[in-house]
Amino acid sequence: MAEFTVTVSNNKGFHLxxxxxxxxxVSEFADAQIVIHHDESGRxxxxxxxxxxxxxxxxxxxVFRVEIDAESSQKDVITKAISDLFDQGFxxxx
Length: 94
Description:
Layout: E1 2-7, H1 16-26, E2 33-38, E3 43-46, H2 50-54, E4 63-69, H3 72-87
Antiparallel strand pairs: 1-4, 2-3, 2-4
Helix pairs in contact: 1-3
């Protein structure tokens, strides 16, 4: 299992559109299980569950812990893809 943190960088925070983009991204990795956690609130979401992701709605600056359970050859690729998505603000204006 791999674990890392990401920070919501876009002005509008983590909302419906970023949740949708994250779900779309993780769907490319069919054999991986990816879960995000907001440790301050105790909330967690399976990244393949849109309703759970929407419940993670959070403002800019929120830090999520991401857990990936995948083949070792995919962990680095998935980590980079998710990190890049958050770093680029999901395409929102940052």
